Amino acid sequence: MNGPRRRRALGAAALAGVAWWALRRAREADLAGQLVLITGGSRGLGLLLAREFAGLGCRLAICARDAVELERARAELAAAGAEVLAVPCDVSDAAQVEAMVREVERRCGGVDVLVNNAGIIQVGPLQTMDVDDFRRAMAVNFFGAVHATLAALPGMRARGAGRIVNVCSIGGKVAIPHLLPYDAAKFALTGFSQGLRAELAGTGITVTTIIPGLMRTGSPVNAFFKGQAEKEFAWFSLGSATPLSAMHAGRAARRIVQAARRGEAEVTLTWQAKALRIAHDLFPGAMSDVLGGVARLLPGPGAGGGTERVRGMELATPVSPSPVTGLMNRAARRNNEFGGVPQPSPEHARRVGLDPPDDTEPMSGG
Ligand SMILES: NC(=O)c1ccc[n+]([C@@H]2O[C@H](COP(=O)([O-])OP(=O)(O)OC[C@H]3O[C@@H](n4cnc5c(N)ncnc54)[C@H](OP(=O)(O)O)[C@@H]3O)[C@@H](O)[C@H]2O)c1
Q1: What are the beta bridge partners of residue 163?
Q2: pLDDT value of position 342
């Protein structure tokens, strides 16, 4: 191609790029004034999403079980100028969710955007998991989203408009070893979310499935560990801490809100999660061998069966909390991960620079 032709081709490509970008921008709905209900909005990703939606001028309703932590989140959002209602609620209980959604509708009007974000995670080898671990994971990570969706849908259908965002996980696309109850529940949620979008096509209600890889929300301190709990906490929090393995959670929240505004079908967050999905889809046999190898590298159940569930913030290992996991610890402080009860162990609190465990003063951003 000669010089002028190449320049014309480059110009046309640049124009097409700008037009594509402008078209995508134009497809982003203006959500100002709309009511966004976020389950698990008290800390971590849910709180970051609340801050993000508030920045767009949305009104907010947030729910979670821990009323102390929820109130801290509400106070922070309100102090920043957001109009926010906080309703304590356990999403695994259908009746509580129904009552919570009715209260939100009564006090704030119809739910325009529902974000099914509430989730729990248990980490450990299968030998340490019992049927209750699977039930707990399904109850929150799967049925929690089903309950909230069924409660909010009638209002959305009546208005012929709405957005539902389901925060799934890469663990709901590729089963990660030592997370079996979580994987199973997130696979179920992914299927529900995809099917829901298909069934609601043409109703004015969009459903967006979010498949995040690791994000630096700080949530390992609130995850539960079984087996050799210290070792499980160490590898899991290391993976959740470094920029090489985990995405900045604020950036993840911005991308999720953008996907909701565009009504996108599915978004996978982090290049690592994308690579894992592609590799698994193309080479399922080879990938299962790789994951089998990973499982063999992870800690065994340990002496005594290791069936005790220990929360991350009760643990302190040489790796975590430490400067190596400093980014995660700062994110945990910023995102209200230490906000309620129970409080961290004195050693954990000392290492992440928190006040003594019985202190309930609001924490400053780290
Ligand atoms: N962080 C990551 O790397 C990552 C990766 C992939 C997917 N995800 C998903 O992203 C979502 C948010 O994760 P995160 O890292 O922000 O976790 P997080 O900091 O532990 O936040 C979880 C939120 O869910 C709430 N929650 C838990 N169980 C609940 C229940 N039964 N009823 C109502 N609320 C409940 C928690 O509050 P209470 O405990 O007070 O109820 C909290 O507000 C989860 O669905 C998670 O699976 C996270």
Answers
A1: 113, 206
A2: 74
pLDDT at position 363: 39
Site to probe by mutation for ligand 1, drawn from 76, 104, 169 as the one with most ligand atoms within 8 Å of Cβ, is 169
Q: Which atom of ligand 1 has the smallest separation from the CA of 222?
A: 20
Length of the chain: 366
Query: Ligand 1: does its nearest atom lie under 6 Å from the Cβ of 45?
Result: yes
Q: Which residues of 58-91 are buried (b: 16+ CB within 10 A; e: fewer)?
A: bbbbbbbbbeebbebbbebbeeeebebbbbbbbb
Calculate the CA dihedral of residues 263, 264, 268, 271 and round it to 10 degrees.
-110
Res 361: pLDDT: 41
Q: Which atom of ligand 1 is nearest to the CA of 246?
A: 3
212 ligand 1 Cβ < 6 A: yes
Q: Does the global pTM surpass 0.90?
A: yes
DSSP category for residue 364 = P
Taking 50 as the pLDDT cut, the residues of the chain under it are 359-366
Q: Write down the CATH number for the domain with range 30-352.
A: 3.40.50.720
CB of 217 closer than 6 angstroms to any ligand 1 atom: yes
Instruction: Return the pLDDT at 19.
Output: 83
Ligand 1 center to 119 CA (angstroms) = 4
Contact between residue 104 and residue 87 where contact means Cβ atoms under 8 Å apart: yes
- Provide the annotated active-site residues: 182
Give residue 118 CA to ligand 1 midpoint distance, Å. 4
How far from each other are the two terminal CA atoms of the chain, in whole angstroms?
55
Specify the pairing of strand 205-212 against strand 266-269.
parallel
For residue 42, the ligand 1 atom closest to its alpha carbon is 43
Alpha-carbon distances, residue 227 vs 127, 302, 315 (angstroms):
8, 6, 13
Say what the pLDDT of residue 16 is: 87
Ligand 1 within 6 A of 317 CB?
no
